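User: My instructor asked us to take a sequence, write out its structure as tokens, and then describe one feature of it. I'm not sure where to start. Here is the sequence I was given:
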Amino acid sequence: MTPEPARAARALPIRLAVFDMAGTTIQDTGVVPLAFDAALASQGLSATAEELSAIRGAGKREAIRHLVQLRRGDEDLDRHADAVYDAFRAELDQRFRAGGARPVDGALEVFSWLRSRGVAIVLNTGFDRETQALVLAAVGWDKGLGRMGVADALVCGDDVPLGRPAPYMVFRAMERTGVTSVAEVLNIGDTVLDIQSGVNAGCGVNVAVWSGAHGREKLAREPGAHLIEDVSHLPALLERVAGGTA
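Assistant: Let's start with the prediction itself. The structure tokens for your sequence are:
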């Protein structure tokens, strides 16, 4: 589904939209959990599907450290966690280069719709900067920032002292776009941690899409978020929010 043709624009309650990447604006094809599995196996470790699901949306270095600690405790934790993280990045690189990333249908149209209404776009992710750049290149979104690019700014796990559910990536997005009121920020993602991050930041609008890592039932248990099927439904939701019907 794509946004409706332009019409008389209703004033939106936001100036900044902070979009998660994998699972929200870039299709979740299962690459990330497969990379986690392979990276852990390289160090003789494993994780359950539930454990992997629980860390979706988190900073990847923090998530891997958590998983390693569950299996090995504090025994040489830093060395093992670093080795798993390096293997994870290598696995992602290989899988993304093999075509494991593509945009969610309608995502670019939604960015354009928001921009036409004066809303800045930031893409954020728990990946490190190198991996973020790789994903953007894989989907052709690496042509620069600002009005001539897909996004006005990028935020990644390297940019903050603590990843989701901490609110810091939202705050960094605000810094990079000059937005000073969290009430004017929309946060959108596909995981519980994405939503918790927006709630912790005090965002004026929080949106969860159930097309990614966490399904509708799981996301519906999180207070403070509007639920939509995928990002293409965002304009209709914002029209309802602006009209006071959502």
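For the description part of your assignment, you could build on this observation: Strands lie at 16-20, 120-124, 153-155, 185-189, 205-209, 226-228. Try explaining in your own words what that tells you about the chain.
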